[in-house]
Design goal:
The structure holds two protein chains of two kinds. By secondary structure, chain A is mostly helical. Chain A has ten helices and no strands. Chain B has a domain at about 1-75 and about 155-230: P-loop containing nucleotide triphosphate hydrolases (Rossmann fold). Classes of the chains: A mainly alpha, B alpha/beta. Bound molecules: adenosine-5'-diphosphate and magnesium ion.
């Protein structure tokens, strides 16, 4: 505890740095995964190819990816941008399948009815498919948030500061309180971002909660009709 | 007027859903397509608004081949109501009704004001305007679907088993409501059902389809009952059995009409 009180400034600063690494990676992986997920959803051939590629990506050990990127991007190994790119790639690998599932989850009936009343293909994507994929996309983003915040700590090993620096420093100097602080702070950060994403989801998808219970109701209704 | 000229639809997998169909659907009348599941009703209906394009023949609206028209613009001018309402679950009732006018570039104020009037037209309380579709009953959802179909005041209204998923009491109510609306509005309605009673109730012209997407008979309900084109039609409409095979017996000096099972259906008044 003493250690924490005398190093509050440092912990606060590292939290901000950690945020600055993870938030852009989370947003980027979401934005990039949506079109990839849509493509995977849209065509049978692309689904297999895209999902396998993302699976492979995820199988690359994180340290290896951090080290392999600089020669390709021309960035320094210790550049935070290098880490953000690596985190984004992992984020995409994590969320693409969910993003394809999200578009699969839009009922064909609703897509057809949107077409029937005169939505163009583009208008239908923005006005119907994307919002209706929202709840499942959000569940994917929540997984990405937790995995990105936790993975960002590994950057400390290659010298990109983050809350992970508290582990590396704590190990080197044998300060247990520092290590524990690092772990707790990482968890708190992940939970805070998760909570924020749920809040944003509630604002953007106000319809998704009542309809979830109603969908169960209408399923029950259909089953009754079928039974009759 | 909608006219099918030798229209065939074969899907890429080889299924012939509609074969060599010739039919005229007169303006301001209701044409009902009736047949069992898989007889090509939906496919036939969807060739009118180019959701499906024929592989042979032509579909004309007021003499114009629909194939020459932009599908999106064409659909924005034709009302479409389907089973399970097809409402957008993430848009409020009012937004659902105003969708197509907004797509067509009508101003927001005007679109919403008109949408509220349409709720009146289909017998829905305006207080439902701010609900999401999932917060409505099945019958109410179908009414919203009809309101949405009417929103651009289309000449043509396509309805694909619109009352198929609601319970029989609500269905009867919606059928009466549609008859009332049609009496007021006089749209060219094309209505799909697999229920012959519904077809006879709503149709000025009834088109009986059989497997393979062929038309067995297209005529008024009375003509079909009087002269079924073949055994398939006679069997399908039940002309020789049950409640449609009526005969007259005299009871205390009055002519009572009874069905094949002997149940009274009414009294002859002349
Ligand atoms: N997109 C499609 N691809 C292949 N076959 C189809 C397609 N849509 C419908 N069919 C087939 O065409 C036939 C007629 O279908 P449909 O018009 O939906 O019949 P109905 O509405 O009378 O039940 C059925 O055999 C159906 O399986
Ligand atoms: Mg059908």
């Amino acid at each position: 505890m003493n250690w924490l009180w005398s190093n509050l400034d440092l912990v606060g600063e590292l939290m901000l740095v950690h945020l600055a690494l993870s938030v852009p990676a989370i947003i980027l992986s979401f934005v990039i995964s949506v079109p990839i997920g849509w493509l995977a959803h849209r065509y049978r051939w692309s689904r297999g190819v895209l999902l396998s590629l993302c699976g492979l990506l995820y199988a690359i050990p994180s340290l290896a990816l951090f080290v392999a990127l600089p020669p390709i991007t021309g960035l320094s190994l210790r550049s935070p941008l290098n880490l953000v790119i690596a985190l984004t790639l992992y984020g995409i690998a994590v969320i693409v399948r969910t993003s394809a599932d999200a578009f699969d989850s839009v009922e064909p009936d609703i897509r057809q009815s949107a077409t029937a009343v005169g939505y163009s293909a583009v208008g239908r994507f923005w006005g119907v498919e994307l919002p209706l994929a929202g709840p499942v996309l959000l569940s994917g983003v929540r997984v990405v948030i937790v995995s990105t915040v936790s993975l960002a700590t590994v950057g400390a090993v290659i010298g990109v500061p983050s809350l992970g620096s508290l582990f590396t420093d704590g190990f080197q100097r044998g300060i247990q309180a520092e290590i524990v602080t690092g772990i707790v702070a990482t968890i708190v950060l992940a939970l805070a971002l998760d909570w924020a994403s749920v809040l944003i989801g509630r604002l953007l998808l106000p319809w998704s909660r009542p309809s979830a219970s109603a969908r169960r109701l209408s399923v029950a209704r259909v089953e009754r009709v079928d039974a009759a | 007027m909608i006219e099918f000229r030798r229209v065939t639809k074969q899907f890429p997998d080889g299924t012939v859903a509609v074969e060599d169909v010739d039919i005229v659907m007169p303006p301001h009348k209701t044409t009902v397509l009736v047949g069992s599941s898989g007889s090509g009703k939906t496919t036939l209906l969807r060739m009118i608004n180019r959701m499906v394009d024929p592989t042979g023949g032509q579909v004309l609206i007021d003499g114009m081949d629909v194939a020459t028209q932009d599908p999106v613009q064409l659909r924005r001018g034709i009302g479409y109501v389907m089973q399970n309402s097809g409402l957008l679950p993430h848009r409020k009732v009012i937004d659902n009704v105003a969708t197509v006018p907004l797509l067509r570039g009508v101003g927001k104020r005007e679109a919403y004001a008109h949408a509220l009037e349409l709720l009146d037209t289909v017998g829905l309380d305006r207080s439902l305007a701010d609900r999401y579709p999932s917060q409505l009953s099945g019958g109410q959802q179908q009414r919203v679907g009809v309101a949405r179909g009417l929103a651009v005041d289309p000449n043509i209204l396509l309805m694909d088993e619109p009352f198929g998923a609601v319970d029989p009491i609500v269905r009867a109510e919606l059928q009466q409501e549609l008859l009332r609306l049609q009496g007021e509005l006089g749209k060219t309605v094309v209505f799909v059902t697999h229920d012959i009673d519904e077809a006879f109730l709503l149709g000025d012209q009834v088109v009986i389809m059989q497997q393979g997407g062929k038309i067995s008979q297209a005529a008024s309900p009375a003509e079909i009952l009087a002269h079924p084109a073949d055994d398939f039609v006679a069997d399908f409409v039940g002309a020789d059995r049950g409640k449609r095979a009526l005969h007259v017996t005299e009871v205390d000096g009055r002519n009572v009409v009874v069905d094949a099972d002997g149940r009274p259906a009414g009294v002859l008044t002349s």
